[in-house]
Design goal:
Radius of gyration: 20 Å
Strand content: 15-25%
Distance between the termini: 10 Å
Largest sheet: 7 strands, mixed
Shape: globular
Number of strands: 17
CATH class of the largest domain: Alpha Beta
Number of domains: 2
Helix content: 25-40%
Order of helices and strands: EEEHEHEEHEEEHHEHEHEHEHEHEHHEHE
Number of helices: 13
Structural class: alpha/beta
CATH architecture of the largest domain: Alpha-Beta Complex
CATH superfamily of the largest domain: Medium-chain alcohol dehydrogenases, catalytic domain
Length: 356
């Protein structure tokens, strides 16, 4: 399924270049918010392109020996079922060698490379795709289905954002703003990694997702469009100040201002929701008086993705709470609309998976 222009998807046949090493049979690809933004045109991507970067499949032909093996990530063989990291970094620059390959200045990513870049098949919304030599792989546990394994991307983001970004210590209080798949993953990670009280915020349109948040470990939820003062409501739900706030709300800068106001001295604000140029009104006096830290997070460290696959294999309740919805390849457009909450007001799934 090729994105030709914003809102324009086309089903087409692309021949595999069998003279090129590195091919994957795609079994499942999760739909991410960035896919929705590229599809609807709110974020520009080079077109035509094959979207999809939360990818699980079986290796048909391993890529040429690449730098990924030198980075101690597992080399793969034909027949291995793997999950990919979407990033294709150089793995040689200072950022990569320090473990921050997700912010490599020469980064490319699966699902955002133009169709006319040889050999063309660079995205997960397809039956097959190319594996570049610098692909980073994670083997999928045998007990985990390919569709369920796609949850490892949002779950790994939750793990990384709460532990690395928020530097969670056992017993600390956590506020998660936004009950999308990444916000819910932050709730699950906070609970599993020893947080004290966990509060999740959302809107009245997020009822099902807020219920999922309860199932994943939120002690209280705050419905922000049903209270007069969101800051006061969050503090009441916590019963104390927050040690960590994770802002996982896209496009809306207001949660950043609220997050700063509810943080305790020494607290950490983790900014994970892209605002697309919308500025936040920030009270800098609170930041210096309370000695707050503000941390941005871009994707996740590799270790978190491996751990997320392990968690999902060990704890099926994680999968049940996310309730992934599976769709065939020719219904990608429906999946994108579902993920955006634009298909029907009473049907807004947390996680949508395309299964070619």
């Amino acid at each position: 399924m090729v994105l030709d222009a914003p809102g324009v998807l086309r089903r087409t046949q692309v021949d595999r270049d069998l003279g090129v090493r590195g091919w994957l049979a795609v079994e499942a690809t999760g739909i991410c918010g960035s896919d929705v933004a590229w599809y609807d045109g709110s974020v520009e991507v080079t077109s035509p392109t094959i979207l999809g970067h939360e990818i699980v499949g079986t290796v048909l032909d391993p890529p040429d020996l690449g730098v990924s093996e030198a980075m101690t990530l597992a080399p793969v063989e034909a027949g291995d079922r793997v999950m990919l990291e979407e990033h294709l970094p150089c793995l040689r620059c200072t950022q990569c060698l320090q473990g921050r390959h997700r912010v490599c200045s020469r980064l490319r990513r699966y699902g955002a490379i133009a169709l006319d870049t040889s050999p063309g098949l660079w995205g997960g919304y397809a039956t097959h795709m190319h594996l570049a030599p610098n692909t980073l792989f994670h083997r999928v546990p045998a007990e985990l289905s390919s569709a369920d394994a796609t949850l490892a991307i949002p779950v790994s983001n939750g793990i990384d954002w709460v532990t690395r970004g928020g530097a969670l210590s056992p017993g600390e209080s956590v506020v998660v703003q936004g009950p999308g798949q990444h916000g819910l993953a932050c709730v699950a990670a906070a609970r599993r990694c020893g947080a004290g009280r966990v509060v999740l915020t959302g809107t009245s349109a997020d009822r099902d997702r807020l219920d999922a948040g309860h199932a994943l470990g939120a002690d209280e939820v705050v419905i922000v469009d049903q209270v007069t003062d969101v800051t006061e409501a969050v503090l009441d739900a916590l019963g104390t100040w927050a040690d960590i706030v994770v802002d996982a709300v896209p496009m809306n800068p207001e949660p950043i201002s609220i997050g700063i106001r509810v943080l305790a001295p020494g607290g950490r604000l983790v900014v994970a929701g892209a605002k697309r140029g919308r500025p936040a009104a920030v009270d800098t006096d609170i930041i210096f008086k309370r000695e707050l830290s503000i941390v941005g997070v871009a994707a996740r460290a590799s270790r978190a993705q491996a751990l997320a696959l392990q968690w999902l294999a060990e704890d099926p309740t994680l999968i049940t709470a996310f309730a992934p919805e599976r769709l065939p390849l020719d219904q990608v457009e429906l999946g994108l609309r579902l993920a955006a909450g634009a298909h029907a007001p009473d049907h807004y799934p947390v996680h949508v998976v395309v299964t070619p």
